[in-house]
Every structure is written in structure tokens, then in C-alpha cells.
Write a structure and sequence with these properties.
The protein has 170 residues and is mostly helical. It is built from 7 helices and 3 strands. It is 56% helix and 9% strand. Helix 3 packs antiparallel against helix 5 and helix 5 packs antiparallel against helix 6. It is elongated, with a radius of gyration of 18 Å.
């Protein structure tokens, strides 16, 4: 298994003395390939990418995180088929759990990626990112202390469009 990882994820082995491991996160069993720092703390993909990865890597990682967030919203969110067909279902509990355990950490990783690599992006991309960041921070704060419905800005569609468009991968 380690040899397969080395062959397919050689960029993980760039650091001297780093230990590569496979971490299984979340109830959906997604695989995250990571490494440990000198103190044994796991580094997330943002930290790994920060150490010299190109914008293509950043956009691909953000695309994966946004896709996961969107799928959870569609499946369990307040306007999901499950929630609308049966308001008393466990969809509300699952949605709350996923907001805290997956969506907010994904959003924080996206913010970290953009902030740690800001020199890689155009002014337009930074403006789109800042709209996402404002949304993400308000979304997170809303989980801690309920805000008025209009206090949390909607997810910025232009950020999603920017991430999904292939022209930004060069």
C-alpha cells in the first residue's frame, strides 16, 4: 500500500523525515492522504499544497471540497427531498452533524488554501474568494449562535463557477 501511495502521490514525500499515512475521515469513509510534521501532528492538504504546489492543485482540491459540501446540502440540507417529504426525519440531525463535522472544516481548508497561496491568484479570483470567505465565516458563526436569516450571505455562485471552470486550471 505504501509503495502504491509513493508511486501515485509522490508529492507527499517531498519533506525530509516526514511520515506518510492514510487517514480515514468522516462517516462517508473518504480517504485523505496526509503526512505528519516533526511533532507528529497531521498536516492537512492545505499545508502540503502551501509548500509549493501550483494553482491547478489548489483548484482541484477546492473543487473536491465544494463538491462534497454541495452533495451533503442536496442530500440532507433544509431544502432536500428528504427534509421536505418528512420534516420529522433524521435529516435535520444528519445535516447539523455534517455542517459541523464536514462542511465547516472543508470551508476552513478552502480559506486556508487561498490565504496561504494568495500570490497565485488574480484580483478577480481574490474578490470571488473573499465573497466565499464572508459566507463561510457567517455560516460557521450561525452554527454557534443563531443569526437572522438575512445575516448569512448566500453561497457565492461566482466562486463555484470560478472553481469549476477549466480555464483556471492552468
Amino acid at each position: 500500500m505504501v509503495e502504491w501511495i509513493k508511486q501515485n502521490y509522490t508529492w507527499l514525500f517531498d519533506g525530509i523525515g516526514s511520515t506518510t499515512v492514510i487517514i480515514f475521515l468522516g462517516f462517508i469513509g473518504r480517504k485523505i492522504f496526509g503526512k505528519k510534521d516533526d511533532k507528529g501532528k497531521f498536516l492537512n492538504d492545505s499545508t502540503i499544497i502551501k509548500s509549493g504546489r501550483c494553482r491547478k492543485d489548489i483548484f482541484q482540491r477546492v473543487k473536491m471540497l465544494l463538491t462534497e459540501n454541495k452533495q451533503l446540502l442536496i442530500q440532507y440540507g433544509p431544502n432536500s427531498v428528504l427534509a421536505n417529504n418528512n420534516p420529522l426525519s433524521d435529516a435535520v440531525k444528519i445535516w447539523k452533524q455534517n455542517k459541523v463535522n464536514t462542511i465547516i472544516p472543508n470551508n476552513n481548508e478552502i480559506i486556508e488554501l487561498f490565504e496561504n497561496n494568495s500570490k497565485e491568484f488574480t484580483d478577480f479570483e481574490i474578490r470571488c474568494f473573499n465573497k466565499f470567505k464572508i459566507h463561510a465565516r457567517a455560516f460557521e458563526f450561525n452554527q454557534e449562535k443563531r443569526l437572522e436569516i438575512n445575516a448569512v450571505p448566500c453561497f457565492p455562485k461566482e466562486f463555484e463557477k470560478m472553481i469549476l471552470e477549466e480555464k483556471y486550471y492552468d
